[in-house]
TrEMBL record:
Organism: Methanoculleus methanifontis
OBG-type G domain segment(s): 2-260
Gene: ychF
Protein name: Redox-regulated ATPase YchF
Pfam families assigned to the protein according to its UniProt record, in alphabetical order: MMR_HSR1, TGS, YGR210-like_G4
PANTHER family on file: OBG GTPASE FAMILY, OBG-TYPE G DOMAIN-CONTAINING PROTEIN
Phylogenetic placement of the source organism: Archaea, Methanobacteriati, Methanobacteriota, Stenosarchaea group, Methanomicrobia
Record key words, sorted: Nucleotide-binding
Length: 389
């Protein structure tokens, strides 16, 4: 499963974002559990279910809106100079290793200092929070590299081994590959063997960016004065109110409102007996949603998976006419595939045996056979024909 990590300084709203994103209404989450432990949960990305276009009865979506599970990790708060040993422990390393991408939460309201202590709203430039996390993570990687440097150079000299391959081994636990090392070296234009400290820090920054793509989330945007939002806009930030999302997801769970995560608005249930205070709270969230086109939480999750990680959604079926699996369930699965994947890749994703016995695939929307090398498109419904091995 694709996994996203939530990282940021203390008090920026990570846990609130995590709780909001993993709080799923029963009808959305057919996944057996949404919170695995305090820091690991299941969130969902939102897409269009093809059932309405194909006129088939479907039980896996809500009115044509389909939610697909992704893992979510709430990483412990990072403090300045964490790379020097203040709080960056094994747990952080482990969380980072598991993550395909990072949601970097910043306090868009400028209401917390570098360590997360509350200060007056607007008194800290939130752009500094972006730089801080990226700096800490690059310096932490640089620390690992420099501690191993002499050994790596020796290894590369004594064996028939390139320095890049040796570095890749050091970072393999973080999911970093030889290709990442090569691309980062090229991007910063350095020769690893002769690189000095400054070059290696730049290299680590690039390596971090390439191997763990980051989406910046400007949280607490509901409190943020315009002068805090403006500089963040230059950084391609998704603005959120995690607290707002949590409030309406809880209200939806209690049947007080109708809301699907990612909707631009919600409607109050006429039978709900809301107190004046509850109504006023929801009115504030509604106002934010109108201004920002929703609470932003779903937009951040979708942005990380569909844009940053470049995934498309493909629906494998066994019966290309009824769009069912062997048990008669309509559009039972939705796979998040890397853009550029082929029907053969899909076959392997369904099962190794199906991949190995792959014969051909049928595009259920057109009824046509497709070549095994043809790129799949977002929303494709595909039947794989294979000989069972
Ligand atoms: N107004 C507003 N308050 C928020 C929002 N998100 C979080 N908060 C509040 O900010 C405070 C900190 O939120 P947390 O979610 O605990 O922050 P955290 O980053 O997990 O903090 P640490 O556990 O210390 O790392 C809480 O009082 C939240 O209610 C938001 O979007 N808007």
């Amino acid at each position: 499963m694709i996994t996203l990590a939530i990282a940021g300084k203390p008090n920026c709203g990570k846990s609130t974002f995590f709780r909001a994103a993993t709080l799923a209404q029963a009808e959305i989450a057919n996944y057996p559990f949404t919170t695995i432990d305090a820091n690991h949960g299941v969130a969902y990305v939102r897409t269009t279910c093809p059932c309405q276009e194909m006129c088939v009865p479907c039980e896996n979506c809500r009115d044509g809106v389909r939610f697909i599970p992704v893992g979510l990790i709430d990483v412990a708060g990072l403090v300045p100079e964490a790379h020097l040993g203040r709080g960056l422990g094994n747990q952080f390393l482990d969380n980072l290793r598991q993550a395909d991408a990072i949601l970097q939460i910043v306090d868009a309201s400028g209401g917390t200092d570098a360590e997360g202590n509350p200060i007056d709203v607007g008194s800290r430039d939130p752009v500094k929070d972006i730089e801080f996390l990226q700096y800490e993570m690059s310096m932490w990687m640089y620390g690992i590299l420099s501690r191993n440097w002499a050994k790596l150079v020796r290894q590369a000299q004594s064996k028939d081994f390139s320095l890049a391959a040796a570095i890749a081994e050091v970072f393999a636990g973080l999911g970093i590959t030889y290709e990442h090392i090569r691309d980062a070296t090229e991007a910063v234009g350095i020769e690893l063997r002769t690189a000095g400290e400054e070059d290696l820090i730049r290299f680590c920054h690039e390596l971090m960016t390439i191997s763990k793509p980051m989406l910046i989330v400007g949280n607490k945007a509901d409190l943020a004065p315009e002068e805090c939002l403006e500089p963040l806009r230059k950084h391609d930030v998704v603005f959120t109110s995690a607290a707002g999302e949590l409030a309406i997801r809880m209200a939806a769970e209690g049947n007080f409102v109708r809301y699907l995560p990612g909707d631009r608005s919600f409607t109050e249930n006429p039978e709900a007996n809301l107190s004046a205070a509850q109504r006023a709270g929801l009115a504030k969230v509604a106002e934010f949603m109108q201004k920002f086109d929703g609470t932003g939480v779903q937009k951040a999750l979708d942005g990380a998976v569909f844009n940053l990680l470049d995934r498309i959604v493909v629906f494998p079926v066994e019966d290309e006419h009824k769009l069912t699996d062997g048990k008669g369930r309509v559009l039972p699965d939705a796979f998040l595939m890397k853009r550029g994947s082929t029907s053969r890749d899909l076959a392997y994703q369904v099962h190794t045996d199906i991949g190995e016995g792959f014969l051909y695939a049928i595009d259920a929307k057109t009824g046509m056979r497709i070549k095994d090398t043809q790129e799949l498109k977002n929303g494709d419904i595909i039947k794989i024909v294979s000989v069972r091995k």
